[in-house]
Amino acid sequence: MSGLVLECFSAASLLPPPHPGAPTRYQGACVSGASPEVLADILRPECNLAIWHRTLPRRLRTGLRPLLAAAPFSVSAEGELEAALTVLTEALPAPPGFELLQDIAQLALFFAALAETGEAVRLRLEGITGPACHRWHADAVGLRLLCTYCGPGTEFLPLAGGAEAARALDPAALPCPAGRVATGAAALLKGEAYPGNAGFGCLHRSPPAGAGPRARLLLCLDEPGRIPPE
Fold first, then answer.
1. Rounded Cα distance, 139 and 192, in Å
2. Using CA atoms, how far apart are residues 145 and 107, in angstroms rounded to an integer?
3. In what order do the strands lie in the sheet with 143-150?
4. Which helix or strand (DSSP H or E) is residue 123 part of?
5. Across the strands, what pairs with 75?
6. What is the four-CA torsion angle of 32, 104, 82, 124, rounded to 10 degrees?
7. Beta bridge partners of 204
8. Do 92 and 68 touch, CB atoms closer than 8 A?
């Protein structure tokens, strides 16, 4: 697998079994690489974050300007991919551009294959000018894909404990350094609702808001049916 990097944490990060005979768990390894196949590593029990490093084409980045100018907004659509993309496109406050739609479709197909949803998916595209989800948290979902097309990417922590651990964190005194997903990279996160992953959901947050109105453009892909329609 090209460009594969596996971050295995130290022995101190091993978690005791929840009951006698249960396997020891790692604190959610992060796997990253330059090939889309790296996303499949999210299916490994010890992995709760897989990152596909990539550089966005210039035409795609240029085509984001109308959407960034229209921020803030949040648009969602759910269903079979082609139909969901049509609904999303019609609801956006500015034209998304062919290159962006093509990229969203590619990521959605990868996501749907790994989540085993056929070609059904829940899409959310947001132009964010405020702090968004700036608190550390673990999502109450199975799998979730995040891609920041413009602006700083999602931050994450290699810690176990899931949502309960997130609530106990002091943002001013974190127990370990935070990582950040690069702009344009596709990050596949394992949540608390993934089978066997309760208490091990990937801890993450949106980057703290900076000064000025400069927008982030964030794509979020979820399994359909898990989140009530907006």
1. 6
2. 8
3. 5-7, 29-33, 47-52, 186-190, 143-150, 216-222, 120-128, 73-80
4. strand 120-128
5. 125
6. 100
7. 137, 156
8. no
Q: Around Cβ 144, how many Cβ atoms within 10 Å? A: 24
Question: Rounded to an integer, what distance in angstroms lies between the CA atom of residue 106 and that of residue 195?
Answer: 25
Tokens of 141: 């979902």
Nearest to 129 by CA among 206, 27, 197: 206
What stretches in the chain show pLDDT beneath 50? 1-26
Backbone phi, then psi, for 28, in 5-degree steps? Answer: 60, 80
pLDDT at 4: 43
**What are 179's strand-pairing partners?**
156
What tokens appear for 186 in the block? 């596709």
Q: Assign 37 to helix, strand or coil.
A: helix
* 193 in Cβ contact with 141 (< 8 Å): yes
Tell me what pLDDT residue 3 has: 44
Dihedral, 200, 202, 208, 214 alpha carbons, nearest 10: -160
pLDDT of residue 67: 96
pLDDT of residue 118: 94
The secondary structure of residue 137, as a DSSP letter, is: B
- Helix spans in the chain (H): 58-62, 65-70, 81-91, 98-115, 162-168
CATH class of 5-17+24-222: mainly beta
- Gap between the Cα atoms of 29 and 159, Å rounded: 9
Q: What is the pLDDT of residue 5?
A: 43
Token duo for residue 28: 């959610």
